[in-house]
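Quick entry between incubations.
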Amino acid sequence: MPAQIIDGKAIAKQVEAEVHDALAKLAYTPSLVAVRVGSDPASELYVRNKARKAQELGLRGTELIFDAAMSEAELLSEIDRLNGDDEVDGILVQLPLPPQIDAKKIIKAVDPRKDVDGFHPINVGLLHLGERALVPCTPAGVMRLIASTGTAIAGLRAVVIGRSDIVGKPVAALLLQQNATVTVCHSRTRDLPSVAREADVLVAAIGKPRLVTADMVKRGAVVIDVGINRVEGKLTGDVDFQNVRQVASWITPVPGGVGPMTIAMLMRNTVTAAHVRRR
Ligand code: NAP
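Done. Structure below.
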Protein backbone atom coordinates (compact mmCIF):
# COMPACT_ATOMS: atom_id res chain seq x y z
CA MET A 1 0.00 0.00 0.00
CA PRO A 2 1.45 3.43 -0.85
CA ALA A 3 2.42 5.74 2.00
CA GLN A 4 -0.13 8.08 3.48
CA ILE A 5 0.48 11.71 2.64
CA ILE A 6 1.27 14.12 5.47
CA ASP A 7 -0.76 17.18 4.55
CA GLY A 8 1.41 20.13 5.58
CA LYS A 9 -1.14 22.67 4.40
CA ALA A 10 -3.86 21.23 6.64
CA ILE A 11 -1.53 20.87 9.64
CA ALA A 12 -0.23 24.43 9.17
CA LYS A 13 -3.87 25.60 9.24
CA GLN A 14 -4.32 23.77 12.56
CA VAL A 15 -1.26 25.55 13.99
CA GLU A 16 -2.58 28.87 12.71
CA ALA A 17 -5.94 28.19 14.37
CA GLU A 18 -4.11 27.44 17.64
CA VAL A 19 -2.22 30.74 17.32
CA HIS A 20 -5.49 32.54 16.66
CA ASP A 21 -7.06 30.97 19.77
CA ALA A 22 -3.98 31.77 21.90
CA LEU A 23 -4.16 35.41 20.75
CA ALA A 24 -7.77 35.69 21.83
CA LYS A 25 -6.71 34.95 25.41
CA LEU A 26 -4.03 37.67 25.54
CA ALA A 27 -4.58 41.19 26.83
CA TYR A 28 -2.17 42.57 24.21
CA THR A 29 -1.41 42.00 20.51
CA PRO A 30 2.04 40.48 19.94
CA SER A 31 4.05 42.17 17.24
CA LEU A 32 6.46 40.73 14.71
CA VAL A 33 8.92 42.87 12.79
CA ALA A 34 10.41 41.35 9.64
CA VAL A 35 13.57 43.11 8.51
CA ARG A 36 14.74 42.99 4.92
CA VAL A 37 17.82 44.62 3.45
CA GLY A 38 17.86 45.05 -0.32
CA SER A 39 15.42 43.81 -2.91
CA ASP A 40 16.14 40.14 -3.60
CA PRO A 41 12.82 39.00 -5.14
CA ALA A 42 12.65 35.72 -3.14
CA SER A 43 13.35 37.55 0.15
CA GLU A 44 10.79 40.19 -0.78
CA LEU A 45 8.13 37.49 -1.21
CA TYR A 46 9.09 35.62 2.00
CA VAL A 47 9.07 38.75 4.14
CA ARG A 48 5.79 40.02 2.69
CA ASN A 49 4.16 36.61 3.26
CA LYS A 50 5.35 36.53 6.86
CA ALA A 51 4.09 40.03 7.65
CA ARG A 52 0.77 39.29 5.89
CA LYS A 53 0.23 36.00 7.70
CA ALA A 54 0.91 37.77 11.01
CA GLN A 55 -1.75 40.36 10.21
CA GLU A 56 -4.20 37.70 8.98
CA LEU A 57 -3.96 35.85 12.30
CA GLY A 58 -4.38 38.99 14.36
CA LEU A 59 -0.76 39.72 15.23
CA ARG A 60 0.84 43.04 14.44
CA GLY A 61 3.10 42.33 11.47
CA THR A 62 5.46 44.98 10.17
CA GLU A 63 7.95 44.91 7.33
CA LEU A 64 11.07 47.07 7.68
CA ILE A 65 12.82 47.47 4.35
CA PHE A 66 16.27 48.97 4.04
CA ASP A 67 18.44 49.89 1.11
CA ALA A 68 20.87 47.22 -0.17
CA ALA A 69 23.75 49.65 0.49
CA MET A 70 22.96 49.85 4.23
CA SER A 71 26.06 49.41 6.41
CA GLU A 72 26.46 46.75 9.08
CA ALA A 73 26.64 49.47 11.76
CA GLU A 74 23.34 50.94 10.58
CA LEU A 75 21.60 47.57 10.68
CA LEU A 76 23.05 46.86 14.14
CA SER A 77 21.67 50.16 15.35
CA GLU A 78 18.20 49.29 13.93
CA ILE A 79 18.33 45.91 15.69
CA ASP A 80 19.31 47.68 18.88
CA ARG A 81 16.33 49.99 18.52
CA LEU A 82 13.95 47.02 17.99
CA ASN A 83 15.49 45.18 20.96
CA GLY A 84 14.75 48.20 23.13
CA ASP A 85 11.19 48.69 21.86
CA ASP A 86 8.92 47.10 24.44
CA GLU A 87 6.11 46.80 21.88
CA VAL A 88 8.18 44.52 19.62
CA ASP A 89 7.91 40.83 20.53
CA GLY A 90 9.57 39.12 17.57
CA ILE A 91 12.37 40.23 15.28
CA LEU A 92 13.31 38.31 12.19
CA VAL A 93 16.05 39.32 9.82
CA GLN A 94 15.58 37.80 6.39
CA LEU A 95 18.71 36.07 5.11
CA PRO A 96 20.77 36.33 2.99
CA LEU A 97 22.08 39.80 3.80
CA PRO A 98 24.20 41.89 1.41
CA PRO A 99 27.94 41.06 1.45
CA GLN A 100 28.96 44.11 3.52
CA ILE A 101 26.89 42.78 6.45
CA ASP A 102 28.05 39.83 8.56
CA ALA A 103 24.89 37.76 9.12
CA LYS A 104 26.38 36.02 12.17
CA LYS A 105 26.95 39.39 13.87
CA ILE A 106 23.37 40.43 13.15
CA ILE A 107 21.93 37.14 14.45
CA LYS A 108 23.93 37.56 17.67
CA ALA A 109 22.70 41.15 18.04
CA VAL A 110 19.00 40.19 18.21
CA ASP A 111 17.68 39.94 21.76
CA PRO A 112 17.39 36.14 22.30
CA ARG A 113 13.93 36.69 23.82
CA LYS A 114 12.78 38.22 20.52
CA ASP A 115 14.69 35.79 18.28
CA VAL A 116 11.67 34.14 16.66
CA ASP A 117 13.90 32.44 14.06
CA GLY A 118 15.67 30.59 16.90
CA PHE A 119 19.09 31.27 15.37
CA HIS A 120 20.74 33.14 18.30
CA PRO A 121 23.50 31.11 20.00
CA ILE A 122 21.57 31.34 23.30
CA ASN A 123 18.52 29.66 21.74
CA VAL A 124 20.72 27.15 19.90
CA GLY A 125 22.44 26.32 23.21
CA LEU A 126 19.18 26.01 25.14
CA LEU A 127 17.77 23.70 22.45
CA HIS A 128 20.81 21.44 22.67
CA LEU A 129 20.59 21.44 26.47
CA GLY A 130 16.97 20.32 26.14
CA GLU A 131 15.76 23.49 27.85
CA ARG A 132 12.97 25.84 26.85
CA ALA A 133 14.06 27.79 23.76
CA LEU A 134 12.72 29.56 20.72
CA VAL A 135 13.14 26.69 18.26
CA PRO A 136 13.90 27.33 14.56
CA CYS A 137 10.65 27.29 12.59
CA THR A 138 11.28 24.68 9.89
CA PRO A 139 12.63 22.07 12.36
CA ALA A 140 9.70 22.76 14.70
CA GLY A 141 7.41 22.23 11.71
CA VAL A 142 9.12 18.93 10.88
CA MET A 143 8.47 17.68 14.42
CA ARG A 144 4.83 18.70 14.24
CA LEU A 145 4.42 16.82 10.95
CA ILE A 146 5.96 13.67 12.46
CA ALA A 147 3.69 14.03 15.50
CA SER A 148 0.67 14.25 13.20
CA THR A 149 1.31 10.67 12.03
CA GLY A 150 0.94 9.39 15.60
CA THR A 151 4.44 7.88 15.46
CA ALA A 152 5.94 7.37 18.92
CA ILE A 153 9.48 8.60 18.32
CA ALA A 154 11.15 7.30 21.50
CA GLY A 155 13.53 4.44 20.75
CA LEU A 156 13.20 4.71 16.96
CA ARG A 157 16.16 5.08 14.62
CA ALA A 158 16.09 8.54 13.06
CA VAL A 159 18.39 9.60 10.24
CA VAL A 160 18.71 13.26 9.28
CA ILE A 161 20.44 13.95 5.97
CA GLY A 162 21.91 17.47 6.15
CA ARG A 163 23.68 19.25 8.99
CA SER A 164 22.91 22.92 8.40
CA ASP A 165 22.46 25.20 11.39
CA ILE A 166 18.95 26.11 10.30
CA VAL A 167 17.54 22.68 9.50
CA GLY A 168 19.63 19.51 9.93
CA LYS A 169 21.25 20.19 13.32
CA PRO A 170 18.14 21.51 15.08
CA VAL A 171 15.99 18.68 13.66
CA ALA A 172 18.54 16.19 15.02
CA ALA A 173 18.50 17.92 18.44
CA LEU A 174 14.69 17.82 18.55
CA LEU A 175 14.57 14.13 17.59
CA LEU A 176 17.17 13.36 20.26
CA GLN A 177 15.11 15.30 22.81
CA GLN A 178 12.25 12.93 22.00
CA ASN A 179 14.55 9.96 22.61
CA ALA A 180 15.13 8.81 19.04
CA THR A 181 18.51 7.28 18.26
CA VAL A 182 19.76 9.88 15.84
CA THR A 183 22.31 9.74 13.03
CA VAL A 184 23.21 12.90 11.14
CA CYS A 185 24.49 12.45 7.58
CA HIS A 186 26.21 14.97 5.31
CA SER A 187 28.20 15.21 2.11
CA ARG A 188 31.11 13.23 3.62
CA THR A 189 28.98 10.35 4.92
CA ARG A 190 30.14 7.02 3.55
CA ASP A 191 27.54 4.72 2.05
CA LEU A 192 24.60 7.04 2.65
CA PRO A 193 22.05 4.52 1.27
CA SER A 194 22.84 1.90 3.91
CA VAL A 195 22.74 4.47 6.74
CA ALA A 196 19.46 5.91 5.44
CA ARG A 197 17.95 2.42 5.20
CA GLU A 198 18.26 2.05 8.98
CA ALA A 199 15.86 4.92 9.56
CA ASP A 200 12.39 4.50 10.97
CA VAL A 201 12.16 8.28 10.60
CA LEU A 202 14.08 9.77 7.69
CA VAL A 203 14.44 13.54 7.30
CA ALA A 204 15.99 14.88 4.09
CA ALA A 205 17.33 18.46 4.25
CA ILE A 206 19.90 18.46 1.51
CA GLY A 207 18.93 20.71 -1.37
CA LYS A 208 19.55 18.05 -4.05
CA PRO A 209 16.50 17.05 -6.12
CA ARG A 210 15.37 13.45 -5.60
CA LEU A 211 18.63 12.37 -3.95
CA VAL A 212 16.70 10.02 -1.67
CA THR A 213 15.59 7.08 -3.77
CA ALA A 214 13.33 4.15 -2.86
CA ASP A 215 16.29 1.78 -2.30
CA MET A 216 17.48 4.12 0.51
CA VAL A 217 14.26 3.84 2.49
CA LYS A 218 13.25 1.15 4.98
CA ARG A 219 9.77 -0.31 4.42
CA GLY A 220 7.32 1.52 6.66
CA ALA A 221 9.57 4.52 7.38
CA VAL A 222 8.18 8.01 7.99
CA VAL A 223 9.82 10.27 5.39
CA ILE A 224 9.98 14.04 5.78
CA ASP A 225 11.25 15.99 2.78
CA VAL A 226 12.49 19.47 3.67
CA GLY A 227 14.12 20.09 0.28
CA ILE A 228 12.91 22.80 -2.04
CA ASN A 229 14.51 22.58 -5.48
CA ARG A 230 13.38 24.09 -8.73
CA VAL A 231 13.66 21.59 -11.57
CA GLU A 232 12.46 22.67 -15.01
CA GLY A 233 10.30 25.33 -13.41
CA LYS A 234 8.69 22.90 -10.93
CA LEU A 235 9.26 22.63 -7.19
CA THR A 236 10.83 19.29 -6.31
CA GLY A 237 11.93 17.86 -3.00
CA ASP A 238 15.05 15.96 -2.01
CA VAL A 239 13.05 12.72 -2.09
CA ASP A 240 11.95 10.77 -5.15
CA PHE A 241 8.35 11.06 -4.00
CA GLN A 242 6.61 8.73 -6.48
CA ASN A 243 8.90 5.75 -5.85
CA VAL A 244 9.61 6.33 -2.14
CA ARG A 245 5.86 6.52 -1.59
CA GLN A 246 5.66 2.80 -2.49
CA VAL A 247 8.00 1.93 0.43
CA ALA A 248 7.32 4.46 3.20
CA SER A 249 4.34 4.48 5.58
CA TRP A 250 4.03 8.28 5.67
CA ILE A 251 5.56 10.91 3.41
CA THR A 252 5.45 14.67 2.93
CA PRO A 253 4.84 16.04 -0.56
CA VAL A 254 6.73 18.98 -2.08
CA PRO A 255 5.12 21.44 -2.30
CA GLY A 256 2.52 21.18 0.46
CA GLY A 257 4.56 19.39 3.13
CA VAL A 258 7.19 21.12 5.26
CA GLY A 259 6.96 24.45 3.38
CA PRO A 260 3.61 25.67 4.77
CA MET A 261 4.69 24.76 8.32
CA THR A 262 7.55 27.25 8.49
CA ILE A 263 5.46 30.44 8.55
CA ALA A 264 2.87 28.85 10.87
CA MET A 265 5.63 27.99 13.35
CA LEU A 266 7.02 31.52 13.07
CA MET A 267 3.64 32.86 14.18
CA ARG A 268 3.61 30.40 17.06
CA ASN A 269 7.13 31.47 18.07
CA THR A 270 6.03 35.12 18.06
CA VAL A 271 3.19 34.37 20.47
CA THR A 272 5.52 32.29 22.65
CA ALA A 273 8.16 35.04 22.67
CA ALA A 274 5.55 37.63 23.66
CA HIS A 275 4.13 35.38 26.36
CA VAL A 276 7.51 34.59 27.93
CA ARG A 277 8.86 38.16 27.77
CA ARG A 278 5.71 39.94 28.94
CA ARG A 279 4.66 37.67 31.79
P1 NAP B 1 22.41 23.67 3.26
O1 NAP B 1 22.80 24.66 4.27
O2 NAP B 1 22.93 23.79 1.86
O3 NAP B 1 22.79 22.21 3.81
C1 NAP B 1 22.67 21.07 3.01
C2 NAP B 1 23.19 19.88 3.77
O4 NAP B 1 23.09 18.75 2.91
C3 NAP B 1 24.68 20.01 4.17
O5 NAP B 1 24.85 19.56 5.48
C4 NAP B 1 25.39 19.10 3.16
O6 NAP B 1 26.54 18.46 3.69
C5 NAP B 1 24.33 18.05 2.90
N1 NAP B 1 24.54 17.41 1.61
C6 NAP B 1 24.73 18.01 0.41
N2 NAP B 1 24.91 17.07 -0.55
C7 NAP B 1 24.82 15.87 0.06
C8 NAP B 1 24.91 14.54 -0.39
N3 NAP B 1 25.15 14.24 -1.68
N4 NAP B 1 24.78 13.55 0.51
C9 NAP B 1 24.54 13.83 1.81
N5 NAP B 1 24.43 15.08 2.30
C10 NAP B 1 24.57 16.09 1.43
O7 NAP B 1 20.83 23.59 3.09
P2 NAP B 1 19.65 23.89 4.17
O8 NAP B 1 19.57 25.34 4.37
O9 NAP B 1 19.76 22.97 5.32
O10 NAP B 1 18.41 23.47 3.27
C11 NAP B 1 18.24 22.14 2.79
C12 NAP B 1 17.06 22.11 1.84
O11 NAP B 1 15.89 22.45 2.57
C13 NAP B 1 17.14 23.11 0.68
O12 NAP B 1 16.51 22.55 -0.44
C14 NAP B 1 16.33 24.28 1.17
O13 NAP B 1 15.76 25.03 0.12
C15 NAP B 1 15.26 23.57 1.96
N6 NAP B 1 14.65 24.38 3.02
C16 NAP B 1 13.30 24.36 3.09
C17 NAP B 1 12.66 25.07 4.08
C18 NAP B 1 11.17 25.02 4.15
O14 NAP B 1 10.54 25.89 4.72
N7 NAP B 1 10.55 23.99 3.61
C19 NAP B 1 13.39 25.82 5.00
C20 NAP B 1 14.78 25.80 4.93
C21 NAP B 1 15.40 25.06 3.93
P3 NAP B 1 27.87 19.29 4.15
O15 NAP B 1 27.50 19.92 5.46
O16 NAP B 1 28.90 18.25 4.27
O17 NAP B 1 28.11 20.29 3.06
